[in-house]
Amino acid sequence: MTITASRAVTGAKPARAARRPWWRGRWPLAALLALLSVLTVSPFVAMFIVALSPAGRPTVPRQWPESLTLDNLTRVLESSGFVAWTVNSLVYAVVSVVVILLTASMAGYAFAKKRFPGREAMFWTFLATMMVPFQATLIPTFVLVNSLNGVDTFWGLIVPTLANSQAVFLMRQFILGLPDELFDAAKVDGASEWRVYWTIVLPLTRPILATLGVFVFLWHWNDFLWPLVVGQSDATRTLTVGLTTLRTEEMQLSVLMASAAVSVVPCLVVFFLLQRYLVNSIAMTGLK
Amino acid sequence: MRQRLRDPVTGLLFVLPVLVLFLTFRIFPSLAAAGMSLTNWNIGGDWDLIGADNYARLLDDVNFWLSLRVTLVYVAVYVPLTLLVALGTALLLNQVVFMRGLFRGMLFLPYVTSFVLAGIIWRWIYEFDGLINGLLAKADLGPVAFLEESAVVLPALAVVSVWKGFGYSMLILLAGLKSIPASYLEAARVDGASAWQRFRRITLPLLKPTIFFVVVIETISGFQTFDTVYVMTGGGPARATYTLIYGIYDHGFRSFDFGYAATWGMVLFAIVLVVSLIQRRFLDRGNT
């Protein structure tokens, strides 16, 4: 009330900003923001400069490299270990995305639109597992996978990470918001349940599937602890784990930084293509 | 009618894949973790029930208390620092219109990369001939052995995680800021409130729930710190960065003392549970 009253008294928006001297305006803030932004990305810039500097020659921070070269990058891409790790990381991330999107959307649909015994209890149990940090169950999960001979296999790497309560929760919340009539109409027309899921649920949930897909990809591409303990040879070792086996004592800094730079490329691609998507979904869902 | 009867079966069938995954890889390991902490399970898979011996050992373990202290100090540095940087950048982004999208993207960029990558870049940044000491040398200062001195190594690690992670909290806080009606701030401005008064009396109180959410989320991730420790210090120097998760990894996968490692996991679980319950308590109070 008081707010509307005081607005009514003074009239429209106060146009004070225009009359301020420049140093009282927003410019100092913009400059500070620009400085912080540049500082934030500078470690990446430094990494790329070192990665492109000739190996063994002085580079930042002592001096600017005399010339730039792609030699380090080609050397990294020619090393068999690195290529294997990259393929493993891609398999780990892509398979996880596909399976989690499929299973979580099916479960989300059932939790949102189907009636079955134990539905609520089951859903809340899933949610409660969010409170158990994965690291607290690391040992029993490893012992379980080990007893099933899953250590250093792809299924041992991937399958235990597919139980994702955030994904199920998000899908259920999204599908709850879709009107029942959409599904009922199809069923009246005699469509099978699977067909309803495939032709109605999946297309309608495309926006949330895309968001979730990006997050699942990043989670798995960047994942470390589980791949570290379960992927014990180059056959299943992922890129994050592989990178930690590279030591500056044994290889030149510029080659190490080139490896690091290549490993971040998929993240950068996702970032540049889907930044707006990521930003909006974090703000709206708190997905982390 | 037929539809209704078909529902329970299809509902269960759609949930089935997720149900199997959760029972096997989330719920069973959670219960097994508690069970294993009561055994002397080892690498060979032999075990005896030893009751609470692991917990007694834990209480007598100097390294456990050291690890708990290390983790608490780390969280005490990491959480306020993240909040400060995230809130500062969010406030700036909320004020500045000039190239806002670009700056937001630059500040958010580290979030899409991995802690392993952050660790590799910052290990070099902190080295004797690394980025920071190179710049310090130009000012005739240093060098500082960031990762070798017990006094500075924890804050140094916290800075890496802040850099990697603050973008998430920044976006959450920015969304919170945007939800504050502009008319409130405008009215206060018209009434002659200074920028600081507006921030202190309007923005901050209205942002409190968002800040609380950020603090809880970041506290939990602070307690789960592992990747950067593994990459940058290996728990050293002299166990100065031996965090709880590092303890789980060390006992589980260096000593293969699975029973005892599971006991460390239970401590982590207890801590995360307490933090989550405090959050719920406060949220409930906020709603009434």
UniProtKB/TrEMBL annotation, chain A:
The chain crosses the membrane at residues 29-52, 90-111, 123-148, 154-175, 196-221, 253-274. It is a multi-pass membrane protein. Signal peptide: none annotated. It is found in: Cell membrane. Gene3D superfamilies: MetI-like (1.10.3720.10). Residues 86-274 form the ABC transmembrane type-1 domain. The keyword Signal does not apply. The keyword Transmembrane applies. Pfam families: BPD_transp_1. Keywords: Cell membrane, Membrane, Transmembrane, Transmembrane helix, Transport. SUPFAM superfamilies: MetI-like. PANTHER family: ABC TRANSPORTER PERMEASE PROTEIN MG189-RELATED, ABC TRANSPORTER PERMEASE PROTEIN MG189-RELATED-RELATED. Belongs to the binding-protein-dependent transport system permease family. This is Carbohydrate ABC transporter permease. It comes from Nonomuraea antimicrobica.
From TrEMBL, chain B:
It is a multi-pass membrane protein. PROSITE patterns: ABC_TM1. The keyword Acetylation does not apply. Keywords: Cell membrane, Membrane, Transmembrane, Transmembrane helix, Transport. InterPro entries: ABC_transporter_permease, MetI-like, MetI-like_sf. It is found in: Cell membrane. It holds the Pfam family BPD_transp_1. Belongs to the binding-protein-dependent transport system permease family. PANTHER family: ABC TRANSPORTER PERMEASE PROTEIN (PTHR30193), INNER MEMBRANE ABC TRANSPORTER PERMEASE PROTEIN YCJO (PTHR30193:SF37). This is Sugar ABC transporter permease. It comes from Nonomuraea antimicrobica.
